[in-house]
């Protein structure tokens, strides 16, 4: 069973008995754990230059780094999403209170009815209550079929309402299953509101609890109403209606599609009992952009990803998964991988925690010497500087890195502001502005292209340009063509965006003052132009009277040229920069269907054996049996005749005894045959047993469907091609 | 260009599918039977099965040993809050248990064997709660003072209570967790959606970390996006081991014994030997008829003929007793019935004549 387990290093492995138990305890936590951990740290920190303990402490250091980095990122994401939804939440909150007041008005006008022990009423009282028997219901359109993205939204909504004096319960479609019926959802409801679990749930328990809640609105949120079992939801609403006087519940239903979905689930009578009000959440693309802006742009000095990673994420978001949740998870995995792969990653903690890059200072456990060594090993440092880095150099290097990141993100945000006129998503723009290779040449290319573009056509679209260059060029052109009012607005927004970066901010302010001057004196010559880099003047020469638009465009070109530099070229970038897309992809989305087949078809690559690869992929007797069988299966159609399959398997495993001419595909060299260590004659029983094992293993992997009664002699292939 | 790749991939898949269909349909379908194989005795086969000589033992050992270098990374990922999902061809049971017993000694570890047929997750949760309770007691006695050994023992609490205990904020230090190692989370005992939901809820608890393995190529279909992204929070590792699925395959029938005629003769004779001598003789009458009539129509024996012969031989006294015997046979799939053109019930033993001869020999 355990060929690889080294008996000396591991405790005695569980015996066959434990293999047959549904579950068992392998071991309990070693009691000295926490003590040992702290002791180690105290003992060894002063002389921590010997390798082994450092590796161990390194693990803890990395974990702490990850925790601080991730908790920072996570809270940023949460805040962004909360802010995005803040308006809707406020509206809902207002509506809840208005609805509740309406209910209360009805209740007080009909006080005698509402204090009866049971709410079942005679016809007269039903007529009297009339309108109040409707259940106030908010439909919250999520505009997103992926309900996983809205789990957090609804949790936030619950928190928001609770903080505004409501009692809230969050239910999901799992609570409305046919198996548990109405009792199931009532049970969850009581569990959440009363904090008790009751075996025989009853509305009267809720009602008596509610009388103690001094007139708070009672809100039930159902997150994904389309996925609820229709009949259970129907019964639930009917039940609520009967109790509407004693327990005035307000419903909030998350709807992914349209209002019709609700009509389809509920019977028409029940639907009429709902007094519906509609609210809308933002689209997934909006949320994506907001998160991207907050995490990868505004915070890019603590963590940033390269072109390949961002392109992978964008493609996966657009084409496959479509959830923000996956994007966030990918970020998390990327951070874990980055921190585990990068020797200096602990520096990130300082970058995250506070201003100023004091990352190399040691309250850290690592010795200065180790840190120094690691710093000198950074490829970016070896490329750019003379390897004499001392602490001062490192600190200035880090702050330079930070400054660069800020400038870069400000520039991208400025471009994005222009892009909003074209409904460009930040995600696309972000991927485009990240450059895979250092771009010394293409900076001037932009200028040239921009020139060509102004001369040849005033086409605003991206026609004729390659996509990546296209956008930036288009942006320059767009700025030139903006009407003065829009330009003013754009500059105002730029002014807001660039507040953190003085270099850009001052120039924006300058331009802002220019627009106001321009309005008064349209023919004014630029006096500052001499102070600016010459590259921009090249364009200015073209037109005799550069307008403000031209200046703004020139400014934009200038900052793009200066600041959109690949982060890879900056010293110390390794500390924050992650671009290992393959590793990220394999950890994020395993591909068992393809990978398991590859394992079987190319087993010699993984096993690194010399014997099986000689034959150009054709099965040879030394191959792993299952692997050989699966290769043979590739020659069949969707049905595999077991008998034929067995015979070809047998022919191969007993190949050395067969005459060479019978199998012309196999290498017939007699030397090779001598080499193979297979026993000359395998018994029939052995071959049949091996065949059985291989079929069983293929069955476990799900690549085969077993013979049916109708087709007792065939198995069915399930996968075709990788 | 990238787009082309994707399209190529999709077309490639459908093209392969249709090619395979064509190959199966147009090419002359082979009519070779499984029984053409000269099958060895089942006993012998099982013996050989137990003693299959491993191939590439050294390479497999090297491969699995190479994963040992990743143990520290795996622990790191686990501590960062992810669940580990191991996949790739070969049994990963030994690998995962070795990982747990060498690298996870700081934490309590519970192993679930998903390849077994039935697993009671409630008991699992109760055991986890016990483990966590023990761990908490060791870690910090003071905080537990105001948390009296709870009102109720764990094994009588509801699943919801257990999950909220495992998820509860007991310590600020979130380093206190219990590990669950699930062998074959896609195995037969765990495959239904309710169990997967519970597993997902367990995996999402703050004091639980999960290490699981899958073997089936379609295993991810067990989970929706909520489970994958927010509850299990998988971090995938491709770790093919090429180790034989000895334990996982324990309950799978061997293909060459399951469908072969040898097997049917054996089971049939076991069933028949457990019946009364009269019933055995009734079966023999039927078998004799079938051996005498080899043609497609004649092999079906009309019920009345059978009844007459059986009564002559004093095997049955009435149609009711004969029917009782026949019901027994039908229940064990020893005979099949159908109506012939005259509307008469006819009987047939679904075995080849050689198998039938062997069977008759065995029971007489």
Automatic annotation (TrEMBL), chain A:
User: Where is this chain's protein located in or outside the cell?
Assistant: Nucleus
Task: Show the InterPro entries listed in the entry.
Answer: ORC3, ORC3_N, ORC_WH_C
Q: Where is the composition biased (Basic and acidic residues)?
A: 518-531
Q: Isomerase: present as a keyword of the record?
A: no
What segments bear the compositional bias annotation Basic residues? Answer: 660-674
Which key words are in the record?
DNA replication, DNA-binding, Nucleus
Keyword flag Acetylation: no
Region called Disordered, residue ranges:
30-52, 515-544, 657-686
Task: Name where it mostly resides.
Answer: nucleus
Q: Which residues form the Origin recognition complex subunit 3 N-terminal domain?
A: 22-346
Q: Which residues form the Origin recognition complex subunit 3 winged helix C-terminal domain?
A: 593-720
Entry similarity comment:
Belongs to the ORC3 family.
Q: Mind telling me what this protein is named?
A: Origin of replication complex subunit 3
UniProtKB/TrEMBL annotation, chain B:
Q: Taking every annotated instance into account, which residue ranges of this chain make up the domain Origin recognition complex subunit 2 winged-helix?
A: 299-354
Residue span, Origin recognition complex subunit 2 RecA-like domain: 59-239
Q: Where in the cell is it found?
A: Nucleus
The UniProt keyword set, sorted, is: DNA replication, Nucleus
UniProt cross-references to Pfam families, sorted A to Z: RecA-like_ORC2 (PF04084), WHD_ORC2 (PF24882)
Give the highest taxon in the source lineage: Eukaryota
Describe the protein's quaternary organization and the partners it interacts with. Answer: Component of the origin recognition complex (ORC).
Q: What does this protein do?
A: Component of the origin recognition complex (ORC) that binds origins of replication. DNA-binding is ATP-dependent. ORC is required to assemble the pre-replication complex necessary to initiate DNA replication.
Family of this protein: Belongs to the ORC2 family.
Please report the name of this protein according to its UniProt entry.
Origin recognition complex subunit 2
In which organism is this protein found?
A: Rehmannia glutinosa
């Amino acid at each position: 069973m355990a060929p690889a387990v080294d008996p000396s290093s591991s405790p005695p492995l569980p015996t066959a008995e434990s293999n047959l138990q549904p579950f068992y305890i392998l071991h309990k936590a070693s009691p000295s754990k926490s003590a040992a951990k702290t002791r180690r740290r105290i003992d060894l920190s002063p002389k921590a230059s010997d390798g082994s303990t450092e590796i161990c402490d390194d693990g803890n250091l990395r974990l702490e780094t990850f925790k601080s980095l991730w908790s920072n990122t996570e809270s940023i994401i949460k805040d962004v999403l909360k802010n995005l939804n803040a308006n809707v939440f406020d509206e809902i909150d207002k509506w809840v209170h208005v609805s509740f007041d309406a209910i209360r008005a009805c209740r007080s006008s009909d006080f005698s009815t509402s204090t009866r022990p049971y709410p079942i009423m005679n016809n007269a009282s039903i007529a009297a209550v009339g309108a109040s028997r409707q259940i106030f219901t908010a439909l919250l359109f999520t505009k997103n079929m992926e309900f996983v993205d809205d789990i957090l939204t609804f949790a936030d909504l619950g928190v928001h309402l609770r903080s505004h004096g409501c009692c809230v319960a969050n239910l999901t479609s799992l609570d409305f299953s046919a198996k548990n019926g109405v009792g199931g959802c009532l049970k969850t409801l009581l569990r959440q509101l009363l904090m008790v679990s009751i075996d025989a749930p009853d509305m009267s328990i809720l009602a008596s609890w509610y009388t103690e809640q001094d007139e708070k609105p009672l809100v039930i949120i159902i997150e994904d109403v389309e996925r609820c079992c229709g009949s259970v939801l129907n019964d639930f609403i009917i039940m609520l209606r009967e109790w509407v006087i004693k327990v005035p519940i307000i419903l909030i239903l998350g709807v992914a599609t349209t209002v019709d979905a609700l009509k389809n689930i509920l019977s028409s009578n029940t639907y009429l009992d709902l007094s519906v009000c509609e609210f809308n959440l933002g689209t997934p693309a909006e949320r994506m952009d907001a998160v991207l802006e907050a995490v990868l742009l505004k915070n890019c000095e603590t963590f940033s990803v390269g072109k390949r990673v961002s392109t992978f994420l964008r493609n996966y978001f657009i084409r496959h998964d479509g959830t923000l949740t996956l994007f966030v998870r990918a970020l998390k995995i990327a951070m874990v991988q980055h921190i585990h792969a990068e020797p200096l990653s602990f520096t990130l903690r300082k970058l995250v925690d506070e201003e100023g890059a004091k990352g190399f200072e040691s309250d850290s456990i690592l010795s200065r010497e180790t840190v120094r060594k690691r710093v000198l090993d950074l490829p970016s440092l070896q490329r750019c500087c003379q390897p004499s880095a001392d602490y001062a150099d490192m600190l200035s290097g880090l702050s330079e890195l930070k400054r660069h990141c800020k400038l870069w993100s400000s520039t991208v945000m400025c471009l994005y502001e222009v892009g909003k006129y074209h409904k460009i998503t930040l995600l696309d723009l972000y991927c485009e502005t990240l450059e895979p290779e250092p771009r010394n040449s293409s900076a001037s290319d932009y200028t040239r292209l921009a020139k060509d573009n102004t001369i040849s056509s005033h086409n605003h679209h991206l026609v004729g340009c390659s996509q990546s260059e296209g956008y930036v060029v288009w942006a320059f052109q767009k700025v030139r063509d903006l009407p003065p009012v829009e330009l003013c607005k754009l500059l105002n927004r730029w002014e807001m965006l660039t507040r953190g970066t003085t270099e850009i901010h001052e120039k924006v302010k300058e331009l802002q003052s220019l627009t106001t001057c321009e309005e008064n004196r349209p023919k004014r010559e630029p006096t500052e132009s001499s102070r600016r880099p010459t590259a921009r003047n090249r364009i200015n020469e073209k037109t005799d009277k550069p307008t403000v638009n031209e200046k703004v465009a020139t400014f934009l070109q200038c900052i793009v040229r200066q600041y959109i530099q690949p982060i890879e070229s900056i010293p110390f970038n390794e500390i924050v920069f992650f671009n290992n897309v393959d590793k990220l992809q394999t950890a994020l989305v395993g591909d068992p269907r393809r990978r398991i087949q590859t394992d079987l078809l190319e087993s010699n690559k993984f096993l690194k054996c010399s014997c099986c690869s000689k034959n150009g992929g054709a099965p040879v007797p030394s191959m792993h049996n299952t692997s050989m069988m699966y290769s043979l299966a590739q020659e069949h159609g969707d049905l595999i005749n077991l008998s034929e399959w067995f015979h070809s398997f047998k022919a191969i495993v007993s190949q050395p005894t067969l005459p060479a001419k019978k199998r012309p595909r196999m290498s017939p060299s007699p030397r090779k045959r001598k080499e193979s260590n297979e026993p000359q004659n395998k018994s029939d029983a052995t071959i049949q047993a091996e065949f059985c094992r291989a079929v069983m293993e293929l069955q476990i992997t799900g690549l085969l469907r077993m013979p049916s009664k109708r087709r007792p002699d065939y198995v069915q292939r399930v996968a075709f091609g990788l | 260009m990238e787009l082309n790749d994707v399209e190529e991939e999709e077309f490639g898949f459908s093209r392969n599918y249709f090619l395979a269909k064509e190959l199966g349909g147009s090419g002359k379908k082979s009519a070779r039977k499984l029984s053409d194989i000269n099958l060895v005795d089942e006993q012998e086969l099982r013996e050989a099965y137990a003693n299959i000589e491993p191939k590439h033992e050294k390479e497999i050992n090297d491969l699995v040993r190479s994963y040992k270098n990743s143990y520290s990374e795996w622990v790191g990922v686990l501590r960062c809050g992810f669940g580990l999902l191991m996949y790739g061809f070969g049994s990963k049971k030994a690998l995962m248990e070795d990982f747990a017993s060498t690298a996870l000694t700081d934490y309590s570890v519970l192993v679930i064997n998903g390849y077994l047929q039935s697993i009671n997750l409630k008991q699992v949760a109760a055991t986890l709660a016990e483990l966590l309770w023990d761990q908490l007691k060791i870690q910090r006695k003071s905080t537990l003072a105001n948390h009296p050994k709870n009102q109720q023992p764990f094994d009588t609490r509801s699943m919801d209570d257990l999950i909220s205990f495992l998820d509860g904020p007991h310590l600020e230090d979130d380093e206190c967790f219990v590990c669950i190692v699930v062998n074959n989370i896609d195995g037969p005992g765990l495959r239904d959606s309710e169990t997967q939901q519970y597993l997902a809820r367990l995996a999402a608890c703050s004091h639980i970390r999960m290490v699981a393995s899958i073997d089936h190529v379609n295993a991810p279909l067990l989970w929706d996006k909520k489970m994958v992204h927010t509850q299990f929070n998988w971090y995938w590792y491709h770790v093919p081991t090429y180790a034989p699925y000895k334990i996982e395959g324990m309950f799978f029938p061997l293909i060459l014994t399951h469908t072969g005629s040898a097997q049917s003769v054996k089971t049939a004779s076991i069933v028949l030997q457990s019946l009364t001598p009269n019933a055995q003789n009734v079966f023999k009458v039927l078998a004799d008829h079938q051996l005498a009539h080899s043609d497609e129509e004649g092999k079906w024996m009309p019920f009345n003929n059978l009844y007459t012969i059986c009564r002559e031989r004093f095997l049955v006294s009435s149609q009711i007793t004969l029917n009782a015997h026949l019901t027994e046979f039908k229940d064990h799939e020893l005979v099949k019935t159908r109506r012939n053109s005259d509307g008469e019930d006819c009987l047939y033993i679904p075995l080849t004549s050689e198998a039938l001869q062997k069977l008759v020999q065995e029971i007489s």
